[in-house]
Amino acid sequence: MPAARPGNPRMIRLLSLLLVLCLPLSAIAAAAPAHPPLSAAQRDWLGEHPQLRVGIVLQAPYAELDRRRQQLSGLNVELMNQLAASLQVQLSWRSYPDAAALERGLRSGQIDIAPGLSQTPAGLRLWLFSDPYLRVPQLLVGEREGGAAVDMEQLVGVSVALRQPSAVSDYLRDTYPTIAQVAVNNERQALRALLERQVDYAVVDEAQLGRLSREAEFAGLAVVGDVGFPQLLRVASRRDWPQLSAIVDAGLRSLPAKDLEQLHERWLQPRYARLGESPGFWQNLSLLLGILFCCAAFLVYWQRRQQRGLEKRLAEARLAIQLREAAEEALRLTQFSIDQSTVGILWVNWDSHIRYANRAAEAMFGYPPGALLERPLGDFDPQLNMDRWLGLWRRARSDEGGGLSFETACRRADGGWLPTDVSLSFLRFADSEYLVVFLSDVTERRRALAALQESEARLKGIASNVPGLVFRLERPHAQAPAAFAFIGEGSEALVGYAASELIERGRGIRGLVHPDDLDDYRATQKAALDNDRDWHWQGRILTRDGSLRWADIKAGARFFEDGRAVWDGVVWDISANKRIELELAESRAQLRQLSAHLESVREEEKARIAREVHDELGQMLTVLKLETSMCELAYADLDGGLRERLQSMKKLIAQLFQLVRDVATALRPPILDAGIASAIEWQARRFEARSGIPCLVEVPEHLPPLSDAKAIGLFRVLQEALTNVMRHARAHTVEVRLSVEQGCLCLRVSDDGQGFGENAGQGKSFGLVGMRERMLILGGQLHIDSSPGEGTTLSVRVALDEEIA
After folding, report:
1. Which range has the worst mean pLDDT, 151-155, 530-534, 653-657, 760-764?
2. Which residues span the membrane (predicted)?
């Protein structure tokens, strides 16, 4: 069976299981806390006092406080925890810095019990002490060298360091007067005085020695004797609770002696330095290990140096092999590239005979592989005689690194001619000199050049015959300025300037723009360039003779992958159209002014007729009614039929009165004199009475004064809108709202009727047209928002008069 490794988890678990199974039952039973034999009265007393307050003096190793975790530890703490477990009571801890503070806590009633005290006459007045539970001897400590036990009776004229004042000091002074005492403040100072050879020995109790012996500073000290004055540790309790003292004695007696020994070993037993803990041992071992390490380091260094040398030579050999392989690969690639190149390559000697030709050159001339070698160049170019060839050789040789280029026509094997672009380059290879001839077939290039020239000629012909100025605006990249790259010959017919003149001056079309329109021209051009969109502008330009023309510029934008942008466009002469457009606008303005004047005259005439109808006809009807009443008073009693006739005439006169009032109101409602707000409310009430459709009206309380013309215009629009609602809308409710917004008077008429589409109302009805024209006359705006089945909203905005607002 193979040996298990220390880190094998399965083996560790198996050993743990065997260890648990092998534990004796007696040990398991001993682990359970033993309960002391208590009387019934003592148990009742503990039942009445389930919690005891423990006071403890913070002194290592008896009691220590971990301030980070706020947890007590130490010999007395573990002892009290075991005692509380056996008595089945709970403990609450209170820590004190010294014994005086502990006594003050007892007097103030803060504690019930305190462990780790020594019985003194003064303490008997405050405490009831238990039997001793631990004996702490006072040890005589000396240097480890010598190591023999010391008899206290034989110590004569030696110096001993110990803490004073203390009971041990008094004991030594009375028992061993031949010993010279050196007073120190604490046990650490006593041990340091011994290390510094200021004294021969030091007296330290076992608890402090056990704590200090763990430090490397005191590893060379050892116990050489016992002073014979041990410190007996007891548990003190309140004097007014004698039952507690008896219970504590019973509990201490019930504690196993093995547990007390374990507490003594864990907290008080000094830990003497072993062989591995000796400073001299470790110094010698460190020196030996240092020497071994230096030898090993030298061996490793020497081995690494030899290894690096071998690796360097191996790397150099590998590099040389790689370079050679790379050179061979590059040579093969070069040869393959030359053979597969689309450019013909010839190596020619000074006598113009070909020494090497690649496959492309053989394919150009139509020869089989190897057929071009040792042939003179004169066989392919009859004009290349020997004198000309030697001249080219001297020129190429005198300008090494440069080259000569020219075009020629070479004869193919089938007798045809091949347009060729020839480049010559001088080359030295080994001990020979060559001219490398590069041949390029330019047949397609010449064909494309001819096509391009024909296309340019066609474009110039089209541009020169277009009735306008053709141009191209180019921008090399996004951050570069744009410039005119082409201007057609039509510029001379349009503005009197030749195209070359406009481009050479750098002015382009911008120099033709009228000064008053130059800002608008620049703004539209900048917007097109910045936003990469088409360019459109209309404005005035000046010809060479100073005459004014209207021009329209339209240019389409095109963009390329390299960032270049091109705008191709035409400048049209629209002077005639613009003149007609201006005349038409002026005519429309005059017609609108005439319409406004006629409307004003009509309203004035309506007002005059309304006044005459109301005043003149009303006065005559009043007189007629008076005469009828006089006749009724004078002759009604004479004839009953005459009375009925007169009553009928009076009713007709009343109806005529109402008809006169309706006619006058229709011509010009008198309510307009009270303001547009009152007129709107009045018209809404009349609409409700006539149509039966509820009309909700919202008008401001304090409306700014409005001119009569604008008030009448708004009123007529409202009348027409309500008439349309009654005739066509089939609405259930109507809302009329008048408000002042941003210096304008706004009238909004909304209904919940059937609405209409975009093309509705464009027939023979002029209602909407009349309302819109009336608003244009007043300088206002009219907007209609309607959709089928969604109702209609009519909005009117009229500016308030400046002198009124």
Report:
1. 760-764
2. 281-302
Which residue in 186, 180, 189 sits closest to 165, CA to CA?
Answer: 186
Take residue 458 and report the two structure tokens written for it: 């066609």
Q: What distance in Å separates the CA atoms of residue 396 and residue 424, rounded to the nearest whole number?
A: 7
- DSSP assigned state of 670: G
Whether the CB-CB separation of 49 and 84 falls below 8 Å is answered with: no
Q: How far is CA 170 from CA 87, 156, 181, 509, 648, in A?
A: 39, 17, 10, 123, 155
289-324 residues labelled b (16+ CB within 10 A) or e (exposed)? eeeeeeeeeeeeeeeeeeeeeeeeeeeeeeeeeeee
* Contact present, 710 and 738 (Cβ < 8 Å): no
H or E element at residue 115: strand 113-117
Closest-CA residue to 190 (of 212, 210, 170): 212
Q: Please, what is the angle between helix 242-254 and helix 40-48, to 10°?
A: 110
Q: In whole numbers, what is the pLDDT of the chain averaged over residues?
A: 78
Residue 47 dihedral angles phi and psi, to the nearest 5°: -65, -35
Task: Encode pLDDT of 459-493 as tens digits.
Answer: 665 555 556 677 777 888 777 777 777 776 666 66
| Cα–Cα distance measured from residue 697 to residue 692, given in angstroms and rounded to the nearest whole number | 15
Cα 95 from Cα 72, distance rounded (Å):
9
Residue 114 burial by Cβ neighbours in a 10 Å radius (0-12, 13-18, 19+) = buried
C-beta of residue 296 within 8 angstroms of C-beta of residue 288: no
Amino acid at 598: L
With H, G, I as helix, E, B as strand and everything else as coil, classify residue 556. Answer: strand
**205-249 pLDDT, tens per residue?**
888 888 888 787 887 788 888 888 888 889 999 988 888 888 888
Q: How does pLDDT run across 420-465, given as a tens digit for each residue? A: 888 887 877 777 788 788 888 877 777 777 777 676 666 665 555 5
What sign has the CA pseudo-torsion 639, 641, 645, 646?
A: positive
Distance CA 162, CA 183 (A): 6
CA 637, 642, 643, 646 dihedral sign is negative
- In single-letter form, the type of residue at position 231 comes to Q
Residue 468 has φ and ψ, to the nearest 5°, of 180, -175
- Per-residue pLDDT band for 595 (boundaries 50, 70, 90) equals low
How far is it, in rounded angstroms, from Cα 512 to Cα 292?
Answer: 99
Q: For 338-364, what is each residue's pLDDT tens digit? A: 777 778 888 888 787 888 888 888 888
Q: For the segment 132-161, what is each residue's pLDDT rounded down to a tens digit? A: 888 889 888 888 765 568 888 778 888 899
Cis status of the peptide bond prior to 121, with omega within 30 of 0: no
**Neighbour-count burial of 686, counting CB atoms closer than 10 A to its CB (0-12 exposed, 13-18 middle, 19+ buried):** middle
Pairing type for strands 180-184 and 159-163 reads parallel
Rounded to whole angstroms, what are the CA distances from 323 to 93, 314, 337? 85, 14, 20
Which one, of 23, 78, 523, lies nearest residue 262 by Cα?
Answer: 78
Question: Which token pair is 29?
Answer: 């039973």
Phi, psi of 359 (to 5 degrees): -70, -35
Q: What is the DSSP letter of 480?
A: S
Q: What is the DSSP string of 347-406?
A: EE-TTSBEEEE-HHHHHHHT--TTTTTT-BGGGT-TT--HHHHHHHHHHHHHTTT--EEE
